[in-house]
Amino acid sequence: MRKTIGLIVNPVAGMGGSVGLKGTDGETYKKALELGAEPVTPKRARDLLVHIEGKDALTLLVAPGKMGERYVAGFDVPFTVIGEIDEETSAEDTKRIAERMVEHGVELLIFVGGDGTARDVYDAIGIEIPVVGVPAGVKVFSAAFALSARAAAKMVDAFVEGSDVTEEEVLDIDEDAFREDRLASRLYGYLLVPEVRRFLQPGKAASSVSRSSRESKREIAAFVVEEMDPETLYLLGPGTTLKAITDELGFPKTLLGVDAVHARELVGEDLNERDILSLFEKYERRAIIVTPIGGNGFIFGRGSKQFTPDVIRQVGRENVIVVGTRGKVSNLDCLRVDTGDLELDEILSGYLKVTVGYKEGMMMEVRC
Amino acid sequence: MLKALRLHRNEMPYPPPQDVIKAVRKGLSKLNRYADPEELERLRGLLADYSGVSKRHIILSPGSDLLLREIIHTFSRGRRVVMVSPSYFRTVQAAKQFAPRRLRIRLSPPAFDLNSEILMDLLEKPSLVIIDNPNNPTGSMLLDRQAVEAIVERGETLFVIDEAYYEFSGFTLADMVADHPNLAVTRTMDKAFSLAGARVGYTIAGEAFQGALSSFSIFLSRLSLHAAMEALRNRDYVRRNVHRIIEERERLRQALDELGIHVYPSSTNFLLLRAEVPDVARRLRDAGVLVLDVSDQLPPGFIRVSIGTREENDAFLTRYAKVRQSCD
Q: Could you read off the pLDDT of A52-69 as tens digits, one per residue?
């Protein structure tokens, strides 16, 4: 039985790079064209298709023309074109076609583009089906992307062979700030991606103790729940590692929001600053549990605006519990904070323990 | 077809000298016999002399990994294992496998240095601390005498320093073992002695470690024993090896730096690079260069490259430049 897989290519992603622009959001794309930028996504799309080993197990649903159809013709894979596009394409095309593909029963959606394309795909399909992101943007920061077109092909093969899937972050990069060499990214959402365990170097035995990201999250959750003090109010920030904690406790989690737990009971959902401060009137002992944003390491200031300086100060540095899988933590240089309150950022800097597994911690430096 | 460059296992690119090879040949004629206990004792004596310690501190094993593994297995019960990250991957794996409680201190770029105050703060509970000095894969020195003295003063702490690259750093803390029963230093003859294929490791162990560890010396082959003894009797070549590798390491580092590649200072026979090229280890492998991808412990793009002969290092530079060009 062939797997039905969708392919959407953002034909303008990455064009800013060769002409020194950072990103092609909005009007910048036209500027890139004026400067003589060449499309980069066709090569990425072809590289991907060349390296998929299990092509004979696939049926493709592709976006029309330069958004997909054009690149699959040379390969011996049956395909059907979904939707229509005009000469000038936009984010709306990506969203509309992604939705149509899900309606047509795609089991995996491959998209070629940058962070903006990932946000469009997230807006359209959320975590309904898994995706494989092929990086073609000027700078691709979201953890939901594969490392390269070839690595993306491996993920497609792994999916066809029945791999597990895991949630990875989609970041909202402020391109205007990025063009001014300021990295201003915040958590936007999550996409489901096939999990390909890291392959070790030739000559090295595969570790018998390596764990999948999902298993790692469960391990962290089991430890955090075991250590929970019944007198303390726990504020759980956004993220799938935090969701593993509420799964362990048997509650739903607001994936992009803050929920509150006391004595293993859910006492607040999707809280804003005011909600949190009113809970503080009732609970004297407080803790915040957060996970760093994959790729940039922010624990405060980018993913959870509900944790305002006032909230963090009332909880105290010593009651900030950081959790993260080994895979995510190893990808970071350090932890970062940007609360908007320089004095608080200073207080938060130094080393914090990150729980990375059951009774396993990593001391990480917090920089601001 | 390009010959693959083996720059992924920190081996010495120069073979051992003829005297060592002759000694191994001599051992071949008695291959029907186990190694003589007297010869094992002689090797311990030679290693004690080389390390400047008493023979009673020397524990032999086929490779130092095995003893590190045994130390974790034996001493992690009732103690938290404290290590740095990144660290030698086999020690990391052994800790994951055997130690019920683990805490690691992350070394961050660009300095990759160890904050010894943070380490001291963690030692309030009984701990087994294992630190590679110099560190593998960053190449940086993490410990000085003052920090080690402060740590070993904590009576409930057992402290193991992995000095696999001691000959390249020229810095050792082995002399402290005599006065500190809770200190052990592990070393290997795999690297500077050109004997990776013989697998001779040893631990300079304080009293707290002695007697508790399994005896692995009987697993040393007669051939390895002969190679090690001859190498220790005739060790001028080790100094030459180290000198050549350090000279090449610094030449390669400068060349990489001139190419605009992030490369970090090293006290070992390898360099840590941060490549801008995505999936760089795989691309280099396709270009016939084997390097160690350390992205399981550090962010993507970090690779560890062993120092080869001058020709190998030049070939590495050429192939790296081509890989980078193909990604532009």
A: 999 999 999 999 999 999
Are residues B5 and B316 in contact, defined by beta-carbon separation less than 8 angstroms?
yes
Structure tokens at A169: 């972050």
Rounded-to-integer distance, Cα B25 and Cα B207, Å: 37
Strand, coil or helix: what is A214?
A: helix
| Distance between A267 CA and the closest CA of chain B, angstroms | 32
pLDDT digits (tens, 9 = 90+) for B173-194: 999 999 999 999 999 999 999 9
Q: Which residues of B touch A (CB under 8 A)?
A: 8-9, 85, 89, 93, 96-97, 100-106, 108-109, 115, 118, 122, 278-279, 281-282, 285, 290, 292-293, 295-300
- B chain contacts of residue A362, beta-carbon cutoff 8 Å: 85, 103-106
Is B185 strand, coil or helix?
A: strand
Q: Measured in whole angstroms, how far is the alpha carbon of residue B282 from the centre of its chain?
A: 24
Asked whether A337 and A300 are in contact (CB, 8 A), the reply is yes
- Residue A363 and residue B292: Cβ atoms within 8 Å? no
In tens, the pLDDT along B147-173 reads 999 999 987 899 999 999 999 999 999
Chain B touched by A329 (CB under 8 Å)? yes
For A361, which residue in chain B has the nearest alpha carbon? B103
The strand pairing partners of B305, in sequence order, are B271
